[in-house]
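Researcher: Please translate sequence to C-alpha coordinates.
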Amino acid sequence: MARAVVAVGLTIAAAGCAGHYVLQAIKHMEPQVKQVFQSLPKSAFSGGYYRGGFEPEMTKQEAALVSGVSPTANKGKIRDAHRRITLLNHPDKGGSPYIAVKINEAKDLLDGQAKK
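Model: Translation complete:
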Protein backbone atom coordinates (compact mmCIF):
# COMPACT_ATOMS: atom_id res chain seq x y z
CA MET A 1 0.00 0.00 0.00
CA ALA A 2 2.76 2.43 0.93
CA ARG A 3 4.62 1.60 -2.27
CA ALA A 4 1.56 2.50 -4.34
CA VAL A 5 1.21 5.86 -2.57
CA VAL A 6 4.91 6.62 -3.15
CA ALA A 7 4.64 5.60 -6.81
CA VAL A 8 1.60 7.83 -7.34
CA GLY A 9 3.36 10.72 -5.60
CA LEU A 10 6.46 10.33 -7.75
CA THR A 11 4.30 10.15 -10.92
CA ILE A 12 2.50 13.37 -9.98
CA ALA A 13 5.80 15.10 -9.22
CA ALA A 14 7.28 13.98 -12.56
CA ALA A 15 4.19 15.20 -14.43
CA GLY A 16 4.43 18.55 -12.64
CA CYS A 17 8.11 18.95 -13.54
CA ALA A 18 7.44 18.01 -17.17
CA GLY A 19 4.54 20.47 -17.35
CA HIS A 20 6.73 23.24 -15.90
CA TYR A 21 9.44 22.49 -18.46
CA VAL A 22 6.93 22.58 -21.33
CA LEU A 23 5.48 25.90 -20.16
CA GLN A 24 8.95 27.43 -19.92
CA ALA A 25 9.83 26.19 -23.42
CA ILE A 26 6.61 27.66 -24.84
CA LYS A 27 7.32 30.97 -23.09
CA HIS A 28 10.73 31.21 -24.79
CA MET A 29 9.29 30.27 -28.20
CA GLU A 30 6.41 32.78 -28.05
CA PRO A 31 8.11 35.55 -30.11
CA GLN A 32 9.02 33.11 -32.89
CA VAL A 33 5.52 31.63 -32.94
CA LYS A 34 3.96 35.10 -33.19
CA GLN A 35 6.29 35.96 -36.06
CA VAL A 36 5.33 32.78 -37.93
CA PHE A 37 1.61 33.47 -37.50
CA GLN A 38 2.03 37.07 -38.65
CA SER A 39 3.87 35.94 -41.78
CA LEU A 40 1.02 33.60 -42.80
CA PRO A 41 -1.57 34.98 -45.21
CA LYS A 42 -4.86 36.06 -43.66
CA SER A 43 -6.73 33.48 -45.75
CA ALA A 44 -4.98 30.73 -43.77
CA PHE A 45 -7.23 31.58 -40.81
CA SER A 46 -10.47 32.27 -42.64
CA GLY A 47 -11.48 28.60 -42.60
CA GLY A 48 -11.89 28.54 -46.37
CA TYR A 49 -15.67 28.81 -46.15
CA TYR A 50 -17.64 30.71 -48.73
CA ARG A 51 -19.99 33.17 -47.04
CA GLY A 52 -23.24 33.32 -48.92
CA GLY A 53 -25.92 31.13 -50.39
CA PHE A 54 -26.53 29.68 -53.80
CA GLU A 55 -27.54 31.79 -56.78
CA PRO A 56 -30.97 31.11 -58.36
CA GLU A 57 -29.18 29.78 -61.44
CA MET A 58 -25.72 28.28 -60.96
CA THR A 59 -22.89 30.18 -62.63
CA LYS A 60 -19.55 28.78 -63.71
CA GLN A 61 -17.82 30.62 -60.84
CA GLU A 62 -20.25 29.17 -58.29
CA ALA A 63 -19.83 25.69 -59.79
CA ALA A 64 -16.07 26.04 -59.41
CA LEU A 65 -16.48 27.07 -55.75
CA VAL A 66 -18.77 24.12 -55.04
CA SER A 67 -16.43 21.67 -56.78
CA GLY A 68 -13.20 23.11 -55.43
CA VAL A 69 -11.58 23.34 -58.86
CA SER A 70 -10.60 26.12 -61.21
CA PRO A 71 -13.33 27.37 -63.58
CA THR A 72 -11.00 26.32 -66.42
CA ALA A 73 -10.25 22.81 -65.07
CA ASN A 74 -10.19 19.88 -67.46
CA LYS A 75 -12.72 17.03 -67.39
CA GLY A 76 -10.43 14.71 -65.45
CA LYS A 77 -9.96 17.16 -62.58
CA ILE A 78 -13.68 17.93 -62.53
CA ARG A 79 -14.58 14.22 -62.30
CA ASP A 80 -11.98 13.57 -59.58
CA ALA A 81 -13.23 16.52 -57.54
CA HIS A 82 -16.84 15.45 -58.03
CA ARG A 83 -16.10 11.92 -56.87
CA ARG A 84 -14.24 13.16 -53.78
CA ILE A 85 -16.91 15.69 -52.79
CA THR A 86 -19.77 13.29 -53.47
CA LEU A 87 -18.24 10.64 -51.23
CA LEU A 88 -17.94 13.18 -48.41
CA ASN A 89 -21.46 14.61 -48.81
CA HIS A 90 -23.55 11.67 -49.99
CA PRO A 91 -27.07 11.58 -48.49
CA ASP A 92 -26.72 7.87 -47.68
CA LYS A 93 -23.82 8.78 -45.39
CA GLY A 94 -25.52 11.66 -43.59
CA GLY A 95 -25.07 14.38 -46.20
CA SER A 96 -27.74 16.78 -47.36
CA PRO A 97 -29.77 15.84 -50.45
CA TYR A 98 -29.87 19.52 -51.42
CA ILE A 99 -26.07 19.79 -51.31
CA ALA A 100 -25.79 16.57 -53.32
CA VAL A 101 -28.02 18.11 -56.01
CA LYS A 102 -25.87 21.25 -56.07
CA ILE A 103 -22.68 19.17 -56.35
CA ASN A 104 -24.13 17.28 -59.31
CA GLU A 105 -25.36 20.51 -60.89
CA ALA A 106 -21.89 22.04 -60.55
CA LYS A 107 -20.28 18.96 -62.12
CA ASP A 108 -22.72 18.99 -65.04
CA LEU A 109 -22.17 22.70 -65.67
CA LEU A 110 -18.36 22.50 -65.53
CA ASP A 111 -18.18 19.19 -67.40
CA GLY A 112 -20.33 20.54 -70.22
CA GLN A 113 -18.01 23.52 -70.69
CA ALA A 114 -14.65 21.80 -70.08
CA LYS A 115 -12.12 20.66 -72.63
CA LYS A 116 -10.92 17.07 -72.76
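Researcher: Any highlights?
Model: The radius of gyration is 25 Å.
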